[in-house]
Amino acid sequence: MCSPAPSPPSLRGRQAEARRNDVAVLEAARDVFTALGADAPIAAVAERAGVGMGTLYRRYGSKTELLQRLCVLSMEQALDAAEEALKSDSPWAGLAGYIAACIELRSGALASLAGQIETTAEMRRTAERGLACMAEIVARAHGDGSLRPDATAMDITWLIEQFSRRAPVGVEAVEERNVRSRLVAIALDGLRARIGGRPGEILPGDPPSQVHYVNRWSVSTRA
Fold first, then answer.
1. Are 150 and 172 in contact (CB under 8 A)?
2. Which of 60, 78, 92, 167 matches a 20 to 30 Å C-alpha distance to 143?
3. Which residues 6+ apart lie within 8 Å of 118 measured at CB?
4. What's the number of CA atoms in the CB half-sphere (13 Å) around residue 1?
5. What residue spans define the domains of the chain?
6. Which among 68, 51, 78 has a CA at the least distance from the CA of 164?
7. pLDDT tens-digit readout, 39-79
8. DSSP codes, 118-131
9. What pTM did the predictor assign?
10. What CATH number has the domain spanning 13-198?
11. Rounded to the nearest 5°, which phi and psi values hold at 147?
12. What are the phi and psi torsion angles at 192 (to 5°)?
């Protein structure tokens, strides 16, 4: 059963400022790690976010601790999108809206960190909630026949991750955004069941494995 993250309490003063800084750093991290990979220096993230290194290290004890927090924050944003999807009366509209929201958030942009940082219990719990929500969104769309029967939750998870890998916000050209919008529309059309028309082509290969997807994060190669 999908269990979205609980709503955070109202934040004031320094807590609210810290939250704003976290979101700014997350956006910067998505840009930097997309462009430079998992070895990108935290200094580049801080510079892009417009915060000082001192600010980061007063809040986080290490680069790893910061990256762990950013992963959780990114998953929480996707959980918010999932909660909205499950409120929709139309399972297909909910699924399509969820995919579009996650792509806009670039929720899969930190995937380059897989295997590079140790996963925490909080990361695992949040990831499990995300996978459960995705499974419920997909089951609803399968249930009303709007999603092609051979498309799985992991297909969609990988699709979101692939579309998350793009030029940093503020750098990409208008044409690139236009192309991405078109390709997302094509992908959504490919996911939709063919109702009353010719049957679509059967997807090649076996469905992606959730075990493989999760296990990418289980091998830590850096302290």
1. no
2. 78
3. 64, 68, 220
4. 1
5. 13-198
6. 78
7. 888 899 889 888 888 888 888 888 888 889 889 999 999 99
8. PPPHHHHHHHHHHH
9. 0.84
10. 1.10.357.10
11. -100, 135
12. -75, 140
